Amino acid sequence: MRFLILTIALSTGLLAQNQELSSYQRKTMNTERFAQAVNTGLNHTLLILGSAWEVSPELGDEIAVYDAQKNMVSSVAWLPEQKGHAGLAIWGDDETTSAKEGMTKGENFSIQFYDKSEDRLSKVQVKRWERGDDLFTKDGVSVVGALSLNTEIEQNMELFQNVPNPVTDNTEISFYLPKDGKVRLALTNTLGQEVEILAASTFNKGMHTIAMDATRLPAGVYFYKLESNKNSVTKQLNIIK
After folding, report:
1. 127, 142, 152, 230: which is closest to 184 by C-alpha?
2. Which of 162, 168, 182 has the alpha carbon at shortest distance from 217?
3. For residue 182, pLDDT beyond 70
4. Between 79 and 126, where is the model more confident?
5. Which of 12-16, 90-94, 99-103 has the highest mean predicted lDDT (pLDDT)?
6. pLDDT above 50 (res 5)
7. Structural domains of the chain sorted by starting position, each given as residue range(s) with its CATH number in brackets
């Protein structure tokens, strides 16, 4: 199973720290529906075989993995060069920070598939595992041998973990809107005091990324809150100096 070994090697090295990325690897990271997950340096490899799909994905489709708390911990853009196989690095939690950026040992993960042409999000139901399962382990490997996309998922507003986290100088915060609407994205400290308004305008449906300059802020724990269409989501970030 030479292709399996090569694909796993690609996946585990895809976002490895301090590694120069190839043009192909950069393309797999060029997602439009999902943000990129925080690279914590700890990962579990997920490989979806080309033969697992009932209908093969198309260019522009995307795959993401979520932890048990519905936080995204991995994403990849599907490319024809993958020969039908998709490899993802599922990131584990960085225990040196108070925020939960990834998965913990033994935690269940779920897989989602985004069909770009249909603008449809579906739950990936694994019908057969060739190796491993849906439990996270450091340096673990799970291989999907058969799957189905029978369950459509409603696309709600989604706030992704900032990348990188912890923050030393600059970071990016991404969010997804299921429809056009006014957006307010604000940063607060642990006392609940508003430190900065990162965005306050109307955004179109889709994923958006806001750059944040943290060079003037003191080290510590902060929270960023997204409000739009009477909904709100909050996540935590850490600034270190």
Report:
1. 230
2. 168
3. yes
4. 126
5. 90-94
6. no
7. 2-153 (no CATH), 158-239 (2.60.40.1930)
